[in-house]
Amino acid sequence: MVSRLTTGKSWYKHFQYEEERDKPGDVRNVLLIVSTLIAAVTFQAGVNPPGGVWQDNGKGHVAGRAIYATESAAYYVFLIANTMALSASILVIISLTHRFPFHLEIIVATISMIVTYGSAIFAVTPKESVRFRYVIAASSVPFILRASIQLFHKFFGEQQEQSKGVSPDMSDANSV
After folding, report:
1. Is residue 46 within 8 Å of 121, Cβ to Cβ?
2. What is the pLDDT of residue 175?
3. Average pLDDT per block of 10 residues along the chain, 176 residues long
4. What is the SS3 string spanning the chain?
5. Could you give the 3-state DSSP secondary structure of residue 31?
6. Of 143, 144, 141, nearest to 93 (Cα)?
7. Would you say the pTM of this structure is higher than 0.85?
């Protein structure tokens, strides 16, 4: 048998999503696994930042603060990107578990995790090195982006249907 690697064909195309082949439940499960892994990794990175934390006081640093924060610009990039990744993965988890049993408990646990993450990054970040309004703004980006996309589709989707002569009620019936 000839390997796809030796023929030059794209081996990864077999693993790409295909609407005709992949079941929605399987896709949801894969997305839940991937988003949960991302949430776990980003949470851990925020709680225990790269380089660890100072173990003692002295030479301009305080015990328990992130060593990486001494490189202010790099730490900003890390903290903002990590926070956006955590927020996006949480948005996916909440969206995919909507109407699941114990959904309220999932939301409570997720909010608790967000609060824990926030308190942990506040605890390890030197007060003078990071402006937390940027971190809070970064955490809201995935939610604002998703809401904007939903509003765009709702507003422009209805306009396109009306211009085609299809009422919004009829399009819902046709999609069932």
Report:
1. yes
2. 44
3. 58 73 83 95 94 90 90 89 95 92 92 93 79 85 93 82 59 46
4. CCCHHHHCCCHHHHHCCCCCCCCHHHHHHHHHHHHHHHHHHHHHHHHCCCCCECCCCECCECCCCECHHHCHHHHHHHHHHHHHHHHHHHHHHHHHCCCCCCHHHHHHHHHHHHHHHHHHHHHHCCCCCCCHHHHHHHHHHHHHHHHHHHHHHHHHHHHHHHHCCCCHHHHHHHHC
5. helix
6. 143
7. no
